[in-house]
Design goal:
There is one protein chain. Strands 1, 2, 5, 6, 9, 12, 15, 19, 24 and 25 form a ten-stranded parallel β-sheet that branches. This protein has a six-stranded parallel β-sheet with strand order 3-7-10-13-16-20, with no helix packed on it. The longest helix has 4 residues. The relative contact order is 0.11. 3% of the residues lie in helices and 55% in strands.
């Protein structure tokens, strides 16, 4: 679907074995090409395959979204490949919310700007209660905005990005100044501004035994925990048991 505007409730149905290999003028590829306004919720994808190597703005749910509220979206056992601004759920996001959503056992690949959940958000963005264990690969020598949750955020104003209770336990293959564990880069008014995020940074967690990155500047973009620590319920003090399944001996999962 090229453009969708309005509300969509998937009623927790699962879409299996969907293949997408086209776009509009090498832009906007996903279940929705572009999602404008409205709420999109309660939808699962299993074994989704998106292969659009020359396409910018690619995501499992939507290539791009604008002022949309996205909740309870699950992507599993899937492969998503594009050129740039490629996200596990959304490619480019202009203001909006993503919550209670996950990307698991999946591969995300592009030249640059890749996010395990959202690749290139801007404007007033809220990201809350998200999980990804995707394998993320950037083929660019600079990375240019690659992270386990967010690729590259940028806006002209500060204090517009909120992130809370996010977890990445996957692996990132890439290099360059703009590659990071949770987020690749944040720019405000054209300047790098790593600390311009609202929300407790103690809840931006990643598995340092799995991440695959080694340089300290990459690892500062998020809070490092060992696998054992992330499999202890006590690590997630303050995370809602109504949203997460949290038990000792396993990573938490979304309900």
């Amino acid at each position: 679907m090229k453009i969708f505007g309005g509300n969509f409730n998937g009623n927790n149905h699962t879409i299996y074995n969907l293949t997408i290999n086209d776009s509009v003028d090498n832009m906007y590829s996903g279940f929705f090409g572009r999602a404008l306004f409205g709420d999109i919720s309660n939808l699962k994808f299993e074994n989704l395959n998106i292969n659009v190597n020359s396409c910018t703005y690619v995501g499992a749910l939507a290539g791009s979204s604008s002022r949309a509220k996205i909740e309870n979206i699950s992507i599993n056992n899937s492969s998503i490949t594009g050129k740039s601004s490629v996200g596990g759920i959304i490619g480019a996001m202009s203001s909006g919310t993503v919550s209670r959503s996950s990307v698991t056992n999946s591969k995300i690949s592009a030249e640059y700007i890749i996010g395990g959940i959202v690749a290139s958000p801007d404007g007033e963005i809220t990201l809350k209660d998200l999980y990804s264990n995707a394998t993320i690969t950037t083929s660019s020598s600079s990375g240019l905005g690659t992270g386990g949750i967010i690729g590259k955020y940028e806006d002209s104003k500060s204090n517009l990005l909120t992130m809370q209770n996010v977890l990445f336990t996957g692996k990132i293959t890439g290099k360059g100044d703009n590659v990071g564990a949770i987020y690749g880069s944040i720019e405000v008014g054209g300047e790098a501004c790593d600390n311009d995020i609202t929300g407790s940074n103690g809840t931006w967690l990643y598995d340092k035994n799995q991440i695959g990155l080694t340089e300290p500047k990459y690892l500062e973009r998020g809070v490092a925990k060992t696998t054992d620590e992330l499999k202890k319920a006590s690590t997630y003090s303050g995370w809602s048991n109504e949203i997460w399944n949290i038990v000792d001996g396993a990573y938490p999962t979304l309900k």
